[in-house]
Amino acid sequence: MNPTAAKPNTAQTPDLDLVRAAFPALQTEVHGHQVAYFDNAATSQKPRAVLDRIDRYYCEENANVHRGVHTMSQLATEAYEGARERLASFLGASSSRQIIFTRGATEAINLLAASFGASFGAGDEIIVSAMEHHANIVPWQLLSERTGVKLRVVPVTDDGELDIEEFRILLNDRTRLVALVHVSNSLGTINPVRRIIADAHGLGIPVLLDGAQATPHAPVNLKELDVDFYCLSSHKMFGPTGVGVLYGKAELLESMPPWQGGGDMIEEVSFSGTTFNEIPHKFEAGTPNIAGAIGMAAAADYLESLGWSWIQQQELDLLEYATAQLSQIDGLRIIGTAPKKAAVISFLIGATHPYDVGSVLDRLGIAVRTGHHCTQPLMKHYGIPGTVRASFTFYNSRSEIDRLAEGLQRAAQMLA
Ligand code: PMP
Q1: C-alpha 117 to ligand 1 mean position (Å)
Q2: Which residues of 81-96 are buried (b: 16+ CB within 10 A; e: fewer)?
Q3: Residue 59: active-site member
Q4: What CATH architecture does domain 51-304 belong to?
Q5: In sequence order, what are the beta bridge partners of 366?
Q6: Whose C-alpha in 226, 258, 368, 395 is 20 to 30 A from the C-alpha of 383?
Q7: Which residue in 5, 118, 374, 384 is the catalytic one?
Q8: pTM value?
Q9: Where is pLDDT greater, at 274 or 1?
Q10: In this prediction, what percent of the chain has a pLDDT beyond 90?
Q11: In the chain, where are the structural domains located?
Q12: Which one of 40, 44, 102, 106 would you pick to mutate in the ligand 1 pocket, going by the greatest count of ligand atoms within 8 A of its CB?
């Protein structure tokens, strides 16, 4: 998440109107207004390039992968395995063998808990933090119930940063895994992952980063980061729903037992015993989400065609502009003020309930998320039931933010 690590933008600077026109859903009318879509952290809209690629797959290439000699099956296999190569290059992985397609970030963490966590037991510890999404808490709690492994929780400061001193104190020779979010979905905080990885590796402890909110906003290079496991969801990075990635270092993935059983993940099956396929196929039982993986690869192409430097500049501008506009609203309190933030603003206005604010905004065609954002322990830390969250991306505009600020003024008056 280092802006200087952005790949040079060799393309011309994109035109915002043209970029917006490439997203059909941004033209949707809600209660008579063109939607101002600020729920990008929950899921992003999809560009034509992604929709067209999925359409072409179903219209021209649809067949099951890996098992067919016929031409369409080979086309589908090439496109599916090509998507794996594309995701490997997008993430800076050294090999596509390290890319396991999953249903999303949630399934990636469940896979890891069931497989990598299978050897954990009583006396072992996993470090998570108070700002984790439930997807990076509950799978470890379920594992804890099965095996006795203990969860240790890194606290969060009032600004919404990880308490790194506490993290260092929690690290010890019983720690089997550090599992932390790269970018917080509720606060926008960008965590200091290089330091975290260096500290954990200093004690030989592997690290999982939940990258669901990182990959839509900045380039990541997993080889350079030297992280052991990483996960993401396609639908948050302009690709289709129902697909994502678990990345792992090859030697770790090879050492892990299979998770789900079925077709494709086997080498040979007999009633006297079954042997398993090589990675990544060992972890992909059954017919995968072929169209989803292909669509996700098209989303990676789309992001890189826009250029990371433009995307990051645009999002920084939106974050600064929105922070300034929203800060002028009486009684508005921003939750999460870490110096290094992605384009997410969580807030409360006086004593108004987030749900009521969200409903007023919806009548004005403005889409925000309200509630606990699947981070209930974090809400407990702040002593609040939830927030209103506006999460921006490169296709949002300053004029949409003006509408948000006006809508919030109105909500504040109506609900006072
Ligand atoms: N982690 C984070 C930080 C998230 O924001 C989300 C989605 N809100 C998830 C994990 C889970 O992603 P999915 O529901 O796509 O599996």
Answers
A1: 20
A2: eebbebbbebbebeeb
A3: no
A4: 3-Layer(aba) Sandwich (3.40)
A5: 36
A6: 368
A7: 374
A8: 0.96
A9: 274
A10: 96
A11: 16-47+307-415, 51-304
A12: 106
